[in-house]
Specification:
Elements: H1 4-20, E1 24-28, H2 34-40, E2 49-54, H3 58-65, H4 69-75, H5 80-92, E3 98-104, E4 119-125, E5 131-137, H6 142-162
Parallel strand pairs: 1-2, 1-3
Antiparallel strand pairs: 3-4, 4-5
Helix pairs in contact: 1-6
Length: 164
């Protein structure tokens, strides 16, 4: 991902986390670690990026992030409920104060009428352990959906840090 907007947002996030002296954890599914890769491109990212979880399968979500089987059964992997549990599990299994989770359907297949391709759910956790979630419908191909997801994930973190 070499999108100039993503690079700019990443640099803003790095500055905000450094200024706040806080660390970040990511929990990714449909972006496949793309957000972690983007963020750790920045020199000095080890000062504010604590760790990342790439939990593509439901088993990985349950084993690494403590997602409840019932949540996946009742709401599915692509849901705000799962995104909330992902970010909560990431925070609990790290030393970070801020977290973000991304789970969705990037395509080109896997979509349903209820959850079409481009459906992505996010969870954010701030330094007060307040969790916020949202569900978004992105347009475009697989790469575009993943890039848009990374942009929104970072923007949500920036918004959370601005409120600090």
């Amino acid at each position: 991902m070499s999108n100039p907007i993503l690079i700019d947002l990443s640099q803003q996030l790095a500055q905000a986390l450094n200024k706040a002296e806080q660390k970040l954890v990511t929990a990714e599914s449909c972006t496949g670690g793309g957000l972690a890769e983007l963020l750790t491109r920045l020199p000095g990212s080890s000062l504010w990026y604590e760790r990342g979880f790439v939990t593509y399968s439901n088993e990985a979500k349950m084993e690494l992030l403590n997602i409840q089987h019932e949540t996946l059964l009742n709401h599915g992997a692509v849901s705000e409920e799962t995104a909330a549990e992902m970010v909560s599990g990431a925070i609990k299994n790290s030393h970070a104060q801020y977290g973000v989770s991304i789970t969705g359907i990037a395509g080109p297949d896997g979509g349903t009428e209820e959850k079409p391709i481009g459906t992505v759910c996010f969870g954010w956790c701030d330094s007060h352990n307040t969790i916020k979630t949202t569900k978004v419908q992105f347009d475009g191909d697989r790469i575009s959906v993943r890039e848009q997801a990374c942009c929104l994930a970072i923007q949500g973190l920036l918004d959370s840090l601005d409120k600090k």
